[in-house]
Amino acid sequence: MAVDEALIAEQQEQRKLWVETPLRESYPLSQAAGCRVFLKLENLQPSGSFKSRGIGNYILRRLEELPGNDAVQPHIFSSSGGNAGLAAVHASRTLGLPCTVVVPLSTKPLMITMLKAAGAYEVVQHGSTWRDADAYLRKEVMTKAGKAAIYAPPFDHPDIWAGNSTVIPEIIAQLDGGALDVIICSVGGGGLFNGISQGLDALSVDSTTVLAMETEGAASLNASVKAGKLVTLPGITSQATSLGAVTVTQRTFDYAQRSNVRSVVLPDAEAAMGCWRLADDERIMVEMACGVNVALCYDGRLERVLGRTVRPDEKIVIILCGGSNVTFEMLATWRKEFGFVEERRESKNRDVQVPSDITAPKVH
């Protein structure tokens, strides 16, 4: 096969595993935040999250390493709180391969059902955290597959970061080459944050502020930044289980030392508020690990985090990283449980009103 033909074939294979997602300006969120807010809709990836990029790229690279005369069918094995597992299952099924996923006991029945419906060969629950599930996968489950086994980590590998980095040239192109002032992304283990940092470096973009978002009870990056070294949390207490990595990667910690990066932590209540207000303002449902990003647009949070007034023409991109692990019932429950956050709204002394202002819970 000619070089050009091989490149075209690879690009066609990649398009099956992940897609270029839309970048859409949100007028309600822009109105609420006082600047131009764009949503990068990674919730529209085939697996429902950005994980399709990194996991898809990782699996393709591992398959390239196999000997051409190997008659054993590869079997993909993934450890995940849910979204990485979905990405691994989708990629494997697209490539005609079986995929077994091990998830921690904290993974909700909804995600288990989704993994099975997506075509998982087997879904196993084990351990209280992702780290426990991962150890069980590698020490117990994978050994039964012998040399057919291919391990797919959820976030800690350069090929995963390289896959995730593809989101940055898309964003820059979709902004028509215009300045990207701030990018907001969630941090679990750090795979997305690493990819974003790598993508910005590749394009020599060093003026963009990166807000690395976590929730209280899953803030392993923030704990590490404060300690000046990698910190392992004793466990995960946040309801944003997709952020449930007790330790971030070393590369994540290194990137977080940069002057343009800010580690930000919000409580579950505000992450949940981001979910229900996004649903009202944009008719998009996302899980709490994504809602923590959206929450910054409301009630002056973005300006408080940045420590300055935002400009009306400033371009802010929020990575809507995933929306698989959410239902209407969950949104209603969060709104009932965490509606008290609406009591703390702060006026910005201007006439601002968006749909979610009208539908806000009445708390007494």
Task: Write the topology of this structure.
Layout: H1 3-17, E1 23-26, H2 27-33, E2 36-40, H3 51-64, E3 75-79, H4 83-94, E4 99-103, H5 109-117, E5 122-125, H6 130-141, E6 149-152, H7 158-165, H8 167-174, E7 182-186, H9 191-202, E8 209-215, H10 220-227, H11 250-256, E9 261-266, H12 268-282, H13 288-294, H14 301-306, E10 315-319, H15 328-338, H16 355-358
Parallel strand pairs: 2-10, 3-4, 3-6, 4-5, 7-8, 7-10, 8-9
Antiparallel strand pairs: 1-2
Helix pairs in contact: 3-4, 3-7, 7-9, 12-13, 12-15
- From the alpha carbons, calculate the radius of gyration and give it in angstroms: 20 Å
Q: What's the CATH first level of the largest domain?
A: Alpha Beta
Q: What's the helix count?
A: 16
What is the N-to-C order of secondary-structure elements (H for helix, E for strand)? HEHEHEHEHEHEHHEHEHHEHHHEHH
Give the rounded overall mean pLDDT.
89
Spans where pLDDT lies below 50 across 5 or more residues: none
List keywords for this structure.
364 residues, alpha/beta, Rossmann fold, 6-stranded mixed beta sheet, 4-stranded parallel beta sheet, 43% helix, 14% strand, globular
What does this structure look like?
Pfam families: PALP (PF00291). One of its GO terms (molecular function) is pyridoxal phosphate binding. Pathway: Carbohydrate biosynthesis; gluconeogenesis. InterPro entries: Ser/Thr_Dehydratase, Ser/Thr_deHydtase_PyrdxlP-BS, TrpB-like_PALP, TrpB-like_PALP_sf. It catalyses: L-serine = pyruvate + NH4(+). The protein folds into two domains: 7-49 and 159-337, Rossmann fold, CATH 3.40.50.1100; 51-157, Rossmann fold, CATH 3.40.50. It is α/β, with parallel strands linked by helices and 364 residues long. Strand 4, helix 5 and strand 5 form a beta-alpha-beta unit. 49% of the residues are buried. The chain has helices spanning 3-17, 27-33, 51-64, 83-94, 109-117, 130-141, 158-165, 167-174, 191-202, 220-227, 250-256, 268-282, 288-294, 301-306, 328-338, 355-358, and strands at residues 23-26, 36-40, 75-79, 99-103, 122-125, 149-152, 182-186, 209-215, 261-266, 315-319. Strands 1-2-10-7-8-9 form a six-stranded mixed sheet, with helices on both faces. The mean pLDDT is 89. It is globular, with a radius of gyration of 20 Å. The longest helix has 15 residues, at 3-17.
